[in-house]
Design a protein that fits this description.
This protein is of the alpha/beta class. It has 3 domains: 3-219, no CATH class; 226-247 and 563-643, Arylsulfatase, C-terminal domain; 266-502 and 514-557, Alkaline Phosphatase, subunit A, CATH 3.40.720. Helices cover 44% and strands 11% of the residues. It has helices at residues 3-36, 45-60, 68-96, 115-121, 131-146, 155-184, 188-191, 197-204, 206-219, 226-237, 290-298, 314-323, 333-336, 345-351, 369-376, 402-415, 452-478, 498-501, 539-547, 616-635, 638-641; strands at residues 265-271, 282-283, 286-287, 300-302, 305-306, 355-360, 380-382, 420-425, 484-490, 518-521, 528-530, 534-535, 567-571, 578-583, 586-589, 600-603, 609-610. The chain has an 8-stranded mixed beta sheet with strand order 7-6-8-1-9-10-4-11, sandwiched between helices. A 5-stranded antiparallel beta sheet has the order 13-14-15-16-17, with helices on one face. It has a two-stranded antiparallel ribbon with strand order 2-3. The protein is globular and about 85 Å long. The relative contact order is 0.12.
């Protein structure tokens, strides 16, 4: 080979070796990410490889435009960003079985709440996601020590290499879109109608997913179009015809049991990570939640009741419970829509002569509560600084235990002007379920073969159950119990897989981690177990009817005690597409594609598959319900539905 050509080849190899090596490593990281998290599919191997290599070129290729010194600084900066993204997404998925979105950047200050969990989730696999940083640093040090002469490309050479990179990137993404079009007849499903996020990440990789989500988030600045507003107004006008047998809305008319608890205080206990599977569950012959079990026998126990949360988790439960609106699938209402106008339950009761309070063992700024609570109608909030931590329960030395929370809340409740509404939110059964050894009363036999986090969850929920039992006894001693309507509900699942581990059989798999209990005490009604399908948006009208307070027209839930056609609708995170629907007679389970016609419609009575058209009416109604809720929140358009 001519020496001149050999020098040119060596020159180009010298320039391109590192960015190409990093791009190949990026492909390996993307494939490993999917494989380790169970997202890998051989069907998507080629497209993920090509599109990841293309994105790797986009990330690392521009370094050829910089001089030697700045080239390495650029690569270090990009490598850190890429590694942080892989690590954050990897740990978050292991924690919640979902993916971080661009909007989550705004919630960075909430990260300390799961810091203890992150330590548990750390594993050797994450070293691969740091390898790119290490590689750049090592080669940087070597280049400094060797003091090699800097390779300078001619302008025409830079242009040629950049054009080559553009071609690689073009064909990488072209292959992804072409394959998608062959499968679905359109590329729109990939970038707009996101249904199966696991498949999406399997096709395009977690980094492409995050960038695509970022792009969509920026476009969503103008969240509500004129068409959306018109659609909402039409929905409001025709809400009576959108009902099936009974209303999707609670009416202003008095329902059965109206005022059974009239004039009583309202105490809502929102229990962290309380799943329904632990109710009446025995471990080694011992009840996991003996106090809740007894309360379930004494009151109204809802055992077919579900949580629906987006990225806000506990805050989303608060939002749904207090407003009878759905949380957003891709944003936290408490943070980004705190200044909206809401017809919340505390506000309704305050207008009816109640004093309203929130009691929580965290700082008031957590989940932006200090900003949204006044608009919801809370007149006074008690936070961490209002309590004394006698024994830390959790990841830090100042974490308030549930026993302290309830014990110190009792005298406050006694001092409140009656009637009052008080929301108490527990914390001790929050991940990572760190409970001091001397508080661990539940013994778990090794033959159950639960994993460590599941065992710790059961011990934590057993401790919280004890704290709730002590609180109820305190209410009885103080004379508040008989004069209060008490609502106890789980806020969301535990993200531990405990329901499956304990053998819970679910009608729909999508709902297995979302089934939480609700218990209503002192309603004036005979104790009973209620198996109607319901969710947290139904709390508001149910509670208001028992208290004898007429609800506004804007709420989307139903009074569980009155409705003859109860319904539970579950949406997917990020996309908001309907995942599952449950009624007294039918169940609908969406296909991975999200196409209604490809879903499964079954009879509840005998679990037989029915023609999909049997579920079409309820599907369309719930689709409109979800769309109306999202439009109300994103556009601050409560007035459009409340006319």
């Amino acid at each position: 080979m001519d020496l001149r050509y050999k020098e040119k080849i060596n020159k180009y190899l010298n320039v391109l070796f590192l960015p190409l090596l990093l791009a190949v490593l990026f492909v390996l990281q993307s494939q490993a990410f999917n494989y380790w998290l169970g997202l890998y599919s051989s069907k998507y191997f080629i497209r993920l490889t090509l599109v990841s290599f293309a994105l790797g070129i986009v990330f690392y290729g521009p370094c050829i435009l910089f001089k030697k010194k700045y080239k390495y600084w650029y690569l270090i900066f990009i490598s850190i960003l890429v590694s942080l993204l892989f690590l954050a997404q990897f740990l978050y998925y292991k924690y919640s079985q979902s993916f971080l979105q661009f909007s989550a950047i705004k919630y960075f200050t909430q990260a300390d709440s799961v810091a203890g969990t992150v330590k548990i989730l750390l594993s050797p696999e994450i070293l691969l996601f740091l390898l790119n940083i290490l590689l750049v640093l090592v080669l940087f040090v070597i280049s400094i020590k060797k003091k090699n002469a800097e390779v300078v490309l001619l302008k025409i050479e830079k242009i040629a290499i950049i054009l080559l990179m553009i071609i690689i990137v073009f064909f990488g993404y072209r292959y992804l879109l072409t394959t998608e079009k062959k499968e679905w007849g359109s590329t729109s499903r990939l970038y707009t109608d996101v249904y199966d996020l696991k498949a999406l990440v399997g096709k395009m990789g977690i980094t492409n997913f995050f960038l695509e989500d970022t792009y969509k988030s920026i476009l969503r600045r103008n969240l509500v179009s004129a068409e959306d507003k018109n659609s909402l107004e039409e929905f409001a006008k025709h809400k009576q015809t959108l009902r099936h047998a009974s209303s999707l809305f609670s009416t202003s008319a008095q329902g059965k049991y109206f005022g059974e608890a009239k004039g009583k205080n309202l105490i809502i206990i929102q229990v962290e990570s309380l799943e329904n599977v632990v109710i009446n569950q025995k471990i080694g012959g011992n009840e996991v939640t003996p106090n809740l079990n007894e309360l379930a026998k004494q009151g109204l126990y809802f055992n077919n009741y579900y949580a629906q949360v987006g990225p806000g988790n506990t805050a989303d439960t608060e939002f749904s419970t207090m407003n009878s609106l759905y949380p957003l699938p891709d944003d936290v209402v408490f943070i980004n829509y705190a200044k909206n106008t809401y017809n919340a339950l505390p506000k309704l009761l305050a207008d009816s002569g109640y004093s309203t309070y929130s009691l929580h063992g965290d700082v008031p700024t957590f989940w932006n509560r200090s900003n949204i609570y006044p608009g919801l109608g809370y007149q006074k909030t008690y936070g961490l600084s209002d309590y004394i931590v006698t024994k830390s329960v959790g990841k830090g030395p100042s974490d308030l235990g549930d026993e302290d929370l309830f014990l110190q809340s009792l005298p406050r409740l006694e001092s409140f002007n009656q009637p009052f509404m008080a929301t108490i939110i527990t914390m001790s059964s929050h991940t990572p379920f760190i409970l001091p050894y001397d508080l661990q009363a539940l013994k778990i036999p090794s033959e159950l073969k639960l994993n460590w986090i599941q065992e710790e969850y059961l011990k934590s929920i057993n401790y919280t159950d004890k704290a709730i039992g002590g609180f109820i006894e305190g209410l009885k001693k103080d004379g508040l119990y008989n004069n209060s309507l008490i609502v106890i509900l789980g806020d969301h699942g535990s993200f531990t897989g405990i329901s499956t581990a304990l053998g819970q059989k679910d009608i729909l798999p999508e709902l297995s981690n979302s089934q939480v209990p609700m218990i209503i005490l002192n309603s004036g009604l005979k104790s009973q177990t209620i198996s109607k399908p319901a969710s947290q948006i139904d709390n508001y009208p149910t509670i208001a009817n028992l208290l004898g307070v007429v609800v506004p027209k804007s709420i989307l839930g139903q009074d569980i005690l009155n409705t003859k056609t109860p319904v539970e609708t579950h949406f997917k995170p990020v996309s908001g597409g309907i995942d599952a629907i449950l009624t007294n007679n039918l169940s609908y389970q969406a296909d991975k594609s999200g196409e209604f016609s490809l879903g499964t419609c079954k009879s509840i009575k005998d679990n037989k598959v029915l023609p999909i058209t049997n579920c079409q009416k309820i599907y369309l109604e719930q689709q409109n319900n979800l769309k109306a809720s999202n439009t109300i929140v994103r556009g601050n358009l409560l007035s459009s539905i409340a006319k």
